[in-house]
Amino acid sequence: MYELFFQQFNEKVPLTAEEQETIKTFLTPKKLRKKQYLLQEGDICKYIAFVEKGALKSYVIDEAGTERITQFALEGWTISDLYSFLTGEPATYLIDAIEDAELVLISKAAHEELLQQVPKYETYIRLQITGAYIALQRRLTSIISLPIEERYKNLTTLYPTIVQRVPQHMIASYMGLTPETLSRVRGRVTGRK
Question: How far apart, in whole angstroms, are the C-alpha atoms of residue 67 and residue 37?
């Protein structure tokens, strides 16, 4: 456990063996079964989760009871309700496993301690949050300015693994479409009639 976590960490911010061992003492492994919750709406988000294996989704349930997916997380990605994690306020998102998953969890207390003890951890977190903000800004711009077909092409180009592993109805939810509309969009993009 922790191999992919440290591989990704070291790609962004190289660690000494001592720093890696220090960080390891603050990490908690967790396994989730498919459809098992990591976080439910209204709970306080206590962890940042790094996906070693599997796939998760973050979502809200709208007034009509429809699931609206806001994020996917596959191997090498992190997922959390960052607002709840940082403020201690109740979570607005639900997070559960699309596939059986193996996670590396960092608790709020561990996060705060690592920020103090390991300066490279702070650098790594800053890079992670910056990357997440850029992805969010890119997605928002896409939603408000691009036709649906272009949004789908961008998704398949930027995240081909998501399209291969995640059920189409979930991709439709992520894109704000019905599964039927997504099917028509996919047909137009691939040239099917």
Answer: 14
